[in-house]
Amino acid sequence: xxxxxxxxxxxxxxxEECLEFDAxxxxxxxxxxxxxxxITVPKxxxxxxxxxxxxxxxxxxxxxxxxxxxxxCGFKNAIFYLTKxxxxxxxxxxxxxxxxxxxxxxxxxxxxxxxxxxxFLDKKGINTRGKLLKILKDGYxxxxxxxxxxxxxxxxxxxxxxxxxxx
Length: 167
What we know:
about 20% strand
């Protein structure tokens, strides 16, 4: 069907149209109607044991357990994150390959954010550019409302571009 996009195609749109920051604010940052938000688990809350990894974090009733059998590549290259989706919480992991591990911390975080955004798009069945833009526009409006920002822009990207034009 024309108009329907894969998650990979939507991720390309985010990059090509300079909408990644909007996606982080709206999806990772929790400014969306789905009450979906992602928080990176600090290293100090990840405890690697012989049988797997235990994640202990506020918001979890008990430590979350990742058994070794589910992670054949080991936990050394994992970045864990806690996801809130409505009333439920779950822990996921993004495993960085050797090339990604050589990147700066900011680029590694960008990789994890992109992973979380793709996971969101897939879970929520977002499969068109229009649905994606609606989420981003609504998210930016929620963000502005939460911080008391008043501007005429529908997307953070547009606000950024306007600031660049003034310089």
